[in-house]
């Protein structure tokens, strides 16, 4: 096999893994949209906030330290302890659940029955509020996130594949972090599907997604279900924040990963968990292969951001509801 | 009661209005958003130095300094809004810390006759003072940086880069594209191959670029990055096992936060710097007279870092220009036009830097009506991940003026023709 062909395969594998990371972000959007019809603009910022909170808890940082010091003239920054990664993740989840409760209690409970555009605008406000709150609580400096995830290319894969394409082929490069992310995403998706299929709360969630008025009439508490859904979206956001934050450190540009999820949603549909996964994989592979075959050699590179949207638009033209979205039927 | 409230409000407004005798320095900062990690330490250093002068000397020449901070979020539109909202306060100088904002402010500041100082960023050809009368980019610019990098590599390779491959990994923006012309000319001159790899904003995802680097195995990777692009690039370089000592960032890709997220894997990464990072005596004064007095611009944690030092250096250059302008004009309460004169005749010497408690923070240089760019010197520093410090590897390296000079002349002439400017000194 020629080295060029093998490098194409390498790009494809890495595209699949990048797609998994995009899908992780898209999953959070799907969960909330499916259950409440809200396009949650704040999903990217939730990933940032989750990762900020996690690093803050792990390093024993005092939340709002800057504000406290400025107000009271103190010089406190740290509690003086470190929390192990698993404990910190559990505590962060508690924070995300509290956030979900507050969002429901103070924002969306008061907006029941409003137009979708109003709900969307509310999530824009929520995004900016959460970003400011994250800054105020934990500061804007870049934080190293070390929860024990492996980094770097897999030497084992590289060694056993080196030479397959002659001296010009250096073996497949596969990032260990991407492999872990793929595994985690698979576990997350299977867990979410099992939860929604086989638990009482999951069935209630699906009932609300199908018809919330009918669900209400059989005694399902919308309030509870929406808190549950926002909590699950918080969990997904935290996982996405950990995976992306491990690559770049936890910093405010993490919120922009939401931009990577939009073409995935356009392609996979806003209401399908498998759609988010398949959409993510198609976008990841499509943009990476386009960059490898056309973008870098002929167009000067940096084509991935716009090509993902072009790909999504092409799918939209032929299937507006996305690959796995529910068919839109308007009866007149 | 109502009348009293109105009177109190009016009195309060008057009291809060601009004190006309102040030396007004707007600080177009960005402490929020994706680039906050770079904007915050620079702004802290910039403001803390002015606060030190106020606390220690009562300002400059007896005039207190009033810093007006305006948050841009590194957003060009917001930067322009900040400029418009602060210029009426009697602003003496703008330091936007953004190439995008700089490009928008060049025509505005020229019309308003307020000097812009774009230190090591912005429009490179602004070094030609006869075309860009109101813009200064001393002590060095992007084309200097590109040339300094190549000169350093020439030194490393026994004076020849013939047959070598250099990859330029750049932020796909006006900023990132700035060095391309210089590097293209230098590649012809020195016989190396230049490969260009663009990274889209913000740079969170660079897998394609690094797979390409792994495939093509360039001898060196030069980086023009900012924000998250830097941290991801350093991590990706470590992932593919690229030799860190062959990976060199420009001076906006060489702060502590650019390398710390990658941990020990970042060990050996190199970058340029336009100012030295060391334990300067002035930091002690800032600590005791500004931070301990509760007047720090930030939380004090950035003191002494690369970008804090650079922000402080920028403030020092501004304050020296103010003092120079005061001396030339004979008045302490100078105008923006007098400030421009102070900048155009600025002379920074080693003796003066030592006197200010920041010995050798930058190279000696002087500015003239024709040359607003300084001498373009830069050092190469290397990250020691164990000690978490930047170690200077070289003394100040000079750029190749025979390459950058004609490019500056050509680009500024094109700008002058487009804007009907007749080159000349004011």
From TrEMBL, chain A:
Entry GO CC: plasma membrane
Cell compartments where the protein resides: Cell membrane
Alphabetized InterPro entries for the sequence: ABC_transp_permease, BCAA_transport_permease
Family: Belongs to the binding-protein-dependent transport system permease family. LivHM subfamily.
Pfam family, one: BPD_transp_2
Classification lineage: Bacteria, Pseudomonadati, Pseudomonadota, Alphaproteobacteria, Rhodobacterales
Keywords: Amino-acid transport, Cell membrane, Membrane, Transmembrane, Transmembrane helix, Transport
GO molecular function terms attached to this record: transmembrane transporter activity
The name this protein goes by in its record: LIV-I protein H
PANTHER family tied to this protein: ABC TRANSPORTER PERMEASE PROTEIN, BRANCHED-CHAIN AMINO ACID TRANSPORT SYSTEM PERMEASE PROTEIN LIVH
Stored CDD domains: TM_PBP1_LivH_like
Gene that produces this protein: livH_1
GO BP field: amino acid transport
Chief location: membrane
Transmembrane segments annotated in the record for this chain: 12-33, 45-65, 85-104, 111-130, 179-199, 220-244, 264-285, 292-318
Entry membrane topology: Multi-pass membrane protein
TrEMBL record, chain B:
Domain Leucine-binding protein: 28-384
Membership in a protein family: Belongs to the leucine-binding protein family.
PANTHER family linked: BLR6548 PROTEIN (PTHR47235:SF1)
Alphabetized SUPFAM superfamilies for the sequence: Periplasmic binding protein-like I
Pfam families referenced in this protein's UniProt entry, alphabetically: Peripla_BP_6 (PF13458)
Keyword annotations of the record: Signal
Superkingdom of origin: Bacteria
Signal sequence annotation: 1-21
Organism: Thalassobacter stenotrophicus
Name the record gives this protein: Leucine-binding protein domain-containing protein
């Amino acid at each position: 096999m020629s080295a060029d062909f093998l490098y194409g395969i390498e790009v494809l594998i890495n595209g699949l893994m990048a797609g998994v990371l995009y899908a992780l972000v898209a999953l959070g959007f799907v969960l909330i949209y499916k259950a409440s019809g809200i396009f949650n603009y704040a999903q990217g910022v939730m990933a940032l906030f989750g990762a900020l909170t996690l690093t803050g808890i792990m390093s024993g940082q005092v939340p709002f330290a800057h504000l406290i010091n400025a107000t009271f003239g103190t010089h406190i920054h740290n509690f003086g302890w470190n929390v192990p990664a698993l404990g910190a993740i559990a505590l962060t989840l508690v924070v995300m659940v509290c956030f979900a409760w507050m969002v429901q209690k103070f924002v969306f409970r008061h907006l029941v029955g409003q137009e979708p555009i109003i709900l969307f605008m509310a999530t824009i406000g929520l995004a900016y509020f959460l970003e400011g709150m994250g800054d105020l609580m934990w500061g804007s400096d870049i934080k190293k996130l070390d929860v024990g995830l492996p980094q770097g290319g897999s030497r084992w894969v590289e060694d056993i594949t080196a030479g397959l394409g002659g001296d010009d082929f250096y073996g497949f490069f596969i990032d260990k972090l991407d492999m872990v992310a793929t595994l985690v995403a698979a576990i997350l998706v299977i867990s979410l599907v099992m939860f929604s299929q086989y638990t009482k709360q999951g069935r209630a969630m699906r009932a609300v997604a199908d018809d919330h008025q009918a669900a209400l009439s059989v005694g399902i508490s919308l309030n509870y279900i929406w808190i549950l859904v926002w909590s699950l979206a918080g969990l997904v956001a935290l996982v996405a924040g950990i995976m992306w934050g491990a690559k770049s450190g936890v910093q405010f540009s993490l919120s922009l990963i939401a931009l990577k999820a939009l073409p995935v949603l356009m392609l996979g549909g806003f209401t399908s968990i498998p759609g988010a996964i398949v959409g993510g994989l198609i976008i990841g592979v499509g943009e990476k292969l386009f960059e490898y075959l056309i973008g870098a050699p002929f167009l000067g590179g940096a084509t991935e951001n716009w090509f993902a949207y072009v790909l999504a638009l092409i799918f939209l033209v032929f299937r507006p509801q996305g690959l796995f979205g529910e068919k839109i039927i308007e009866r007149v | 009661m109502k009348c009293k409230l109105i009177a109190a409000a009016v009195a309060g407004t008057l009291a809060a209005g601009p004190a006309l005798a102040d030396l007004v320095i707007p600080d177009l900062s960005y402490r929020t958003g994706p680039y906050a990690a770079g904007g915050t330490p620079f702004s802290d250093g910039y403001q803390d130095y002015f606060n030190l002068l106020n606390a220690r000397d009562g300002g400059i020449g007896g005039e207190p300094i009033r810093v007006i901070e305006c948050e841009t979020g590194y957003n060009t539109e917001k930067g322009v809004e900040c400029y418009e909202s602060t210029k009426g306060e009697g602003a003496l100088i703008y330091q936007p810390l953004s190439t995008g904002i700089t490009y928008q402010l060049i025509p505005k500041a020229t019309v308003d006759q307020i000097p812009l100082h774009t230190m090591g960023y912005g429009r490179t050809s602004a070094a030609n003072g006869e075309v860009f009368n109101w813009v200064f980019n001393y002590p060095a610019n992007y084309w200097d940086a590109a040339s300094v990098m190549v000169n350093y590599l020439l030194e490393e390779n026994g004076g020849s880069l013939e047959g070598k491959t250099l990859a330029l990994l750049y932020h796909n923006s006006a900023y990132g594209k700035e060095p391309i012309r210089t590097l293209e000319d230098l590649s012809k001159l020195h016989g190396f191959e230049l490969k260009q790899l663009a990274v889209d904003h913000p740079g969170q995802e660079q897998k394609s670029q690094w797979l390409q680097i792994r495939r093509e195995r360039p001898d060196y990777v030069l980086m023009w990055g900012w924000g998250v692009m830097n941290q991801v690039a350093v991590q990706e370089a470590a992932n593919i096992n690229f030799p860190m000592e062959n990976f060199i960032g420009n001076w906006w890709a060489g702060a502590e936060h650019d390398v710390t997220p990658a941990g020990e894997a970042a060990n050996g990464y190199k970058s340029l710097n336009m100012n030295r990072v060391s334990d300067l005596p002035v930091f002690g004064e800032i600590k005791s007279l500004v931070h301990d007095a509760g007047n720090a611009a930030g939380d004090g944690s950035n003191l002494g870092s690369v970008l804090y030092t650079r922000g402080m250096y920028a403030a020092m250059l501004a304050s020296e220009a103010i003092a120079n302008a005061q001396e030339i004009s004979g008045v302490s309460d100078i105008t923006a036009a007098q400030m421009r004169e102070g900048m155009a005749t600025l002379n920074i010497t080693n003796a003066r830097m030592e006197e200010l408690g920041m010995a050798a923070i930058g190279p000696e240089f002087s500015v003239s009506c024709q040359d607003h760019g300084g001498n373009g010197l830069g050092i190469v520093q290397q990250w020691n991940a164990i000690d978490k410090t930047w170690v200077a590897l070289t003394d100040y390296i000079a750029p190749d003026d025979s390459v950058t000079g004609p490019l500056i002349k050509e680009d500024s002439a094109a700008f002058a023709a487009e804007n009907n400017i007749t080159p000349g000194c004011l």
